[in-house]
Every structure is written in C-alpha cells, then in structure tokens.
C-alpha cells in the first residue's frame, strides 16, 4: 500500500479572508481568530500583510508573539519595504515564514506591471534571495499562475527554487481553472521540478469565482501538491477561497480514496466557523457544506426515517466529529410520525400511542401553517394537550376586522353540544372585540384579570403563546392558547379557561358565578 501523505493546511483567513468586502478586523479580533486557528491545528497562519497599514503590522506582531504552535506567515510584495515590514512584524514569532508574490501571467505583466518575462524572473530571484537572509522559510507565489504560459511558469518556478524559495504556491488567482486542467498543471510542474511536493512544499491557492476552489485544490492534491491554502468558511477576495472545513472533511471522509490526511482538529471546525462569521460579520450561507446551518438537517420524512434507522443512510459524516451535538431532524410538514415521536421522547414527554397520534395531528396542522417546527413549538402543543380539558365551547370560526382609524370588530362562531351560536362585537383592540363577542354568546360574566402574549419561537411565522387569567366571582382560572395568529391564540386561551370552568361542577364546587355559566350551558 502507498504510504499516506500529510497535506499541510496554510490558513489565510486573516489575509485573503480579510480581503472579503466588509470583513475587516481589528487587531484584537485577528488575534482571537489566530488563537482559534491554533486550536484548529492549522500548520501555517497567514496573519496578514504587514506593509499595508500600522494596524496590520501590529496585528501580525501580536499574533506572532501570542500564537506559538503554527508557523506565522506575512505577505509581501517583491519590494524591500514589504520584506522589511514582514521581518519586523514577525520578529517575535516562534516559527515564521514570508510569502512573496509576483504576477506572471501575460495580462498582468503587460497591463499591471508593464514588465517583460526576463524582468519578472530577475525581480523574483532578487527578492527571494533578499528574503532568505531573514527567513528560513520563503514561500513564492507566481500570481495568476493558472493563466500564465506553461513554459514561462516552469522557468519562473525553477528560478525561484534556485534562489532559495522553500515553498512554491500556485495560485488560481481569478478562479479560472478547471480541476482536470489544474491537476495537469501541477503534474507538469512536478515533472519539471521533481523536488516539488517533497523537499520543496508545493502549495495551491484556489479562488472560488466559478465555485471550483475546493475541487481544484483536491485535484491538485491528487496530482501531488502537499499544501492547500484555504480559509474558514471559504471567505476571501470576491467569491472567496477554498474552505478549510471542506478540505479537512474531504480528506478525512474520503481518506480511502485520497490516501492523505491533514492534522486539522475536526472537532474545532464548528467553533472556528462561528467565531469567524461572528467577528467578520459574514453570514454563512445555510446550505454551505460542512458549516452551513442546514448541512446536517434532514427535512424529508423518508430521510428522517432512514436516519433514525441507521444514521449513515443519509449522512456521510458524523456531525459530532465537527463539534455539533448530532444530526438534526428538521421537523416540518414533510416529517413522519416516527421522527415526531422520537423528538417528543427526546424532549422528555412520555406519551401513550394514542396521545402521540393526537399530538401528531396537531403537529401536522401547525406544520401546514408554519415552515419549521422547533422544539418549543412541540412543547407548546404537548403542554396544551397534557393539560387537556374537553372542548365544551369550541371555536367554529372567527372574523376580525381591524382598520386604521376604525374600532376593531369581531364575529365569533362557537359550538356547544353541536349547536352553533354567533355574536359580533367591537372593542378597543381586536382581542377585546373577540372577548366581548365570546361573552355575548357564553355570558359567563368572566373578567380578564391578566393577559400575556409571547412568541414561542423566533421568526415571522413564530407561534404566539397567550395566557389569560379569568375571574368569575371568587374563582380564578387560567387558559393558554397557541397559534401562528396571535388573535386566534388569544381566543383559544379564553375558551380554554372557560372550558376549564365548565369542568368545575363535576368536582362539586359550584358557585353563584359557576351557576351563571351552567345556566347557559
Ligand atoms: O489569489 C492570489 O493570487 C493571492 C496571492 C497573493 C497568493 O492571494
Ligand atoms: Zn488569493
């Protein structure tokens, strides 16, 4: 069997990642992220571009001083000022590297640098030699390598190695490469410079303009590259870079095929992702591989059933590996009774089969109104069910009109022993209008002593949870109602309390006010 290769992870969240529009970080924030990257166990942290500003210089210096395990790297153009800035910023580092870059593609040479091929090679050689005086590790990037003429790229890389570069990084700067094409390029470079991927680190740095950053990085590894430059959550210039979590999980999940590994501590992935998202303000798209909110949520009933029978039916990675608590069954209208019953049990409710059946009907009704059902929603359903009282007064329909500048009005239809009664009323608010209409039908004489409304879960389709306390004579009774419509929740809470009162005589505690209701009943 071929021995497995270690793939070095060069994290550039704090350099290329910070180049994401709007993602700029304070030095203290960069240090926080660097410490987390150390916990994630990346091999190299590209901490920044020291020559770019005072703050950046300070941030890189702080990281160099406080983060000791990984190699700390600084970016530099091929000019003495930048190399000096890197030297100063990285003075206190336990392990350090300088990353010098120079564009090599025709379009960059002609339009950006206005330099010929010979000048480019001379500039690279001169500055790599100079950088080697202060750094044992010098990484060289021929910027826009994937669009550079192949023979020229081979020459530049050879010259850089001869000048003392210890790592050669091949950037797909504009995310233009196709995996097969990119792996061919890597193979060509290794053929022409056999030390690459062995004594000389062969790195790749892929951008995601066509959504191929991870695929290109993986193709390069299969072709012999042994370092990947990547960022947490894939942030970076424009569409971003290859993401460290995808790379690490691909190499872990498909180690059988890839024959290589990283030293990334997988259980730190989620924490790293959340920290970077929080500090940069860059929200992770919900369907982002590995770290997206939905990456381990299962919505379809068939999938949920499969997961409950054997997790691997629909999960190729164990979410616990990346620091999540476990797979998530996103309950909603597609969910089956099996998933519902499992969640009910997990929430600590011990229901009989009949009770599950009843609760499942309510769950489905709610799921038709509400996209996702959260644990709190289920708890609300179950709490209502557990405290169930017979629906003596049942809501048949309600119509509420509430227009600006006009008193709200409500028409309520209630049924009692199959007989339907209707009443309308106005009120200072729509809830009061409903309660007055109910009272017109029921004539309980109840006074509302307390009314409380809160949302059960977040989001605009959250369940409203209403609690009312009714006072009838000397009696107090409370009721609770939940619905995505807060007015309906209010009506249900009122009726729930009234229905509780209707139960009272059976326990032999009639009172004058109770009798008032009974007369009507
Ligand atoms: O994308 C790129 O080419 C870069 C270089 C500095 C490596 O970020
Ligand atoms: Zn880049």
Could you walk me through the main structural features you see in this protein, from its secondary elements to its overall organization?
The protein is of the alpha/beta class. The chain has three domains: 276 residues, TIM Barrel (Alpha-Beta Barrel), CATH 3.20.20.70; 90 residues, no CATH class; 126 residues, Double Stranded RNA Binding Domain. 41% of the residues lie in helices and 20% in strands. The protein is built from 18 helices and 18 strands. An eight-stranded parallel barrel has the order 2-3-4-5-6-7-8-9, surrounded by seven helices. A three-stranded antiparallel β-sheet has the order 13-14-15. Strand 8, helix 8 and strand 9 form a beta-alpha-beta unit. Helix 1 packs parallel to helix 2, helix 5 packs parallel to helix 6 and helix 7 packs parallel to helix 8. It is elongated and about 95 Å long. The C terminus is likely disordered. Bound molecules: 3-methyl-2-oxobutanoic acid and zinc ion.
Helix content: 40-55%
Annotation, overall tally of beta strands: 18
> If you average the pLDDT, what whole number results?
90
**Approximately how much beta-strand content do the residues carry?**
15-25%
In CATH, what is the homologous superfamily of the largest domain?
A: Aldolase class I
Provide the domain count. Answer: 3
CATH top level assignment of the largest domain = Alpha Beta
Classification by helices and strands: alpha/beta
What profile does the largest beta sheet have? 8 strands, parallel, barrel
CATH architecture of the largest domain: Alpha-Beta Barrel
Contiguous low-pLDDT stretches (5 residues minimum) are 505-521
What does the overall shape look like? elongated
Using only CA atoms, what is the Rg? 33 Å
User: Largest sheet, order of strands side by side?
Assistant: 2-3-4-5-6-7-8-9
CATH topology of the largest domain: TIM Barrel
Termini Cα gap: 84 Å
Distinct compounds present: 3-methyl-2-oxobutanoic acid, zinc ion
């Amino acid at each position: 069997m071929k021995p497995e290769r270690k793939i070095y992870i060069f994290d550039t969240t704090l350099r290329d990642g910070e180049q994401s529009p709007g993602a700029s970080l304070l030095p203290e924030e960069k240090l926080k992220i660097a410490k987390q990257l150390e916990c994630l166990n990346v091999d190299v942290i590209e901490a920044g571009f020291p020559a770019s500003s005072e703050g950046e210089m300070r941030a890189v210096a702080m990281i160099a001083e406080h983060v000791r395990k990984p190699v700390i790297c600084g970016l530099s153009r091929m000019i003495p000022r930048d190399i000096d800035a890197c030297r100063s910023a990285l003075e206190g580092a336990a392990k350090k590297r300088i990353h010098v870059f120079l564009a090599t593609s025709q379009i960059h040479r002609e339009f950006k640098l206005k330099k010929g091929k010979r000048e480019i090679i001379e500039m690279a050689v001169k500055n790599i030699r100079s950088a080697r005086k202060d750094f044992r590790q010098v990484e060289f990037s021929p910027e826009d390598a994937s669009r550079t003429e192949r023979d020229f790229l081979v020459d530049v890389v050879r010259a850089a190695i001869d000048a003392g570069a210890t790592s050669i990084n091949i950037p797909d700067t504009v995310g233009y490469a196709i995996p097969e094409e990119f792996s061919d390029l890597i193979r060509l470079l290794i053929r022409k410079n056999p030390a690459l991927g062995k004594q000389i680190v062969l790195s790749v740095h892929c951008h995601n303009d066509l959504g191929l950053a991870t695929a290109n990085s993986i193709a390069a590894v299969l072709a012999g590259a042994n370092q990947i430059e990547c960022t947490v959550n894939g942030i970076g210039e424009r569409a971003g870079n290859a993401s460290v979590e995808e790379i690490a999980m691909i190499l872990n999940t498909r180690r059988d095929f890839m024959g290589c590994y990283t030293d990334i501590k997988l259980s730190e992935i989620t924490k790293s992702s959340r920290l970077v998202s929080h500090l940069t303000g860059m929200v992770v798209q919900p369907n982002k591989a590995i770290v997206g909110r939905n990456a381990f949520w299962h919505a379809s009933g068939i999938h949920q059933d499969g997961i409950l029978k054997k997790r691997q039916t629909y999960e190729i990675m164990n979410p616990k590996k990346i620091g999540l608590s476990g797979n998530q069954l996103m309950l909603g209208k597609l969910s089956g009774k099996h998933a519902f019953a499992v969640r009910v049990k997990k929430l600590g409710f011990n229901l009989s089969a009949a009770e599950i059946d009843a609760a499942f009907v309510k769950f489905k009704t709610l799921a038709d109104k509400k996209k996702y059902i959260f644990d709190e929603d289920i708890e609300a359903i179950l709490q209502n069910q557990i405290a169930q009282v017979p629906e003596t007064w049942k809501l048949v329909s309600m119509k509420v009109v509430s227009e600006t500048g006009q008193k709200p009005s409500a028409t309520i239809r209630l049924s009692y022993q199959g007989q339907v009664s209707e009443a309308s009323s106005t009120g200072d608010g729509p809830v009061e209008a409903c309660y007055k209409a109910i009272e017109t039908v029921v004539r309980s004489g109840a006074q509302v002593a307390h009314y409380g409304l809160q949302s059960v879960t977040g989001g605009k389709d959250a369940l409203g949870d209403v609690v009312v306390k009714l006072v009838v004579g000397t009696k107090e009774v409370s009721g609770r109602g939940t619905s995505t419509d807060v007015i309906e929740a209010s009506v249900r809470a009122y009726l729930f309390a009234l229905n509780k009162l209707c139960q009272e005589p059976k326990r032999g505690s009639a009172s004058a006010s109770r009798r008032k209701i009974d007369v009507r009943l």
